[in-house]
Amino acid sequence: MSTSSALAYFFSSFPSLSMTFLQREVRDLRAQRQNVALFANRRPKLGDFDPQDMNLYADTFYLYPIRPIRLLKANLKLIVTRPGAYKNALHQALRLHDGFNLQRLRNLARLFGAAVIAERLSALKINHLHVHFAFGAAGVALLLKTLLGITYSISIHGSDVLIPQPLIRQKLGQARFIISNCRFHIEHLKKEFPELGDQRFYHLPLGIDLSHPPWSSVCEVASPPPLRILSVARFNPIKNHALLLNALAQLKANQIVFRCRLVGEGPTRSKMMALATSLKLDRQVTFLGPLTETAVAQQMDWAHVVVLSSFSEGTPMTLIEAMAKKRAVVAPDITGIPELVVHEETGLLYPCNDQDRLIACLQKLADNPNLIRHMGNQGHWRARGQFDINRHTRNLITIFQQERMHD
After folding, report:
1. What is the pLDDT of residues 37-54, one digit of tens each?
2. What is the separation of C-alpha 300 from the centre of its chain, rounded to a whole number of angstroms?
3. Among candidates 343, 265, 272, 317, which has minimal Cα distance to 158?
4. Is-cis flag, bond preceding 214, omega within 30?
5. pTM for this one?
6. Is 82 among the domain residues?
7. Quick one: which of 296, 308, 361, 301 has its CA closest to 337?
8. Is 217 domain-assigned?
């Protein structure tokens, strides 16, 4: 990592409504005078990110969609100018398969795209790439390292290292260093992959901007009933929305008065809407769809409690945002969540996928308005003390500077 080169960030897609912490990190890096070039595999649709991030969208170099002729020219250029490196990258693409069907074809597609990214990186004289999530973009970075001799690092977040996926061992092993938002992931990976024992890991909690809207203001809310429940999570199987909906049906049967709003989009949304109808929850549960960061903050102003029901998480930004808004939280005691939520102090934790315990947590809050306020206040100070974006960014810059010293 040269001290004179710009830093490049590489995403699978960017910006995104469901990954506001990524935009937040980039904006704060630039506010602290860090030169950050932006790259992404896919161009998002205009409705898939907050309009306030239009400047980041305009500033990002997108690989796809792309004309085939441009792919061809970029690859031919590398074959001519760096024949040895291209040959090595081609062998790498054909060699790495990790037991996944069609992985070699996927590697070749990534190699062809990597040639276009390589052309742009070379023009900007960038020799280090930082990737968020160990998904597809990390697979491209693996090939870029061979093509250009650059280094790359990865910020891991949760499902990218907890769910089996292709080439995860190689992506992590070839990275110069790895940043994790919780200690759980670091210990998990060291146990799962003993060969990562010499890898440099950094623990860096996520950050939120507590000095500017929409997270700088806190709105008091009238005590229940009804208990106002909010869930902010993408609709996919790992988020386990069915657990929450079934728990709500039992709350209704227990004569607990509540209202619940679900924020998010994803492949299981229609199925969950049908489940809510079958459970006769149409009057209690509202599906709001995807919302901007400001709109999510407004929903947290409405809520008493923010709930997650996931099978797997990292350090969920939703919980940090809820704590910043002085809202009690209820979440499963999995992965990095206990590092964030202090049980009985800033929120309530329950065993993963345990419907009865989730019901008990919600009923406890419905019966104890003072507990809601206490947990909200304690969570607010915890968010201020541990999850401030300015502290996050300063520590991130320090990591990059320390790594440059290894050159």
Report:
1. 999 999 999 889 999 999
2. 19
3. 317
4. yes
5. 0.91
6. yes
7. 308
8. no
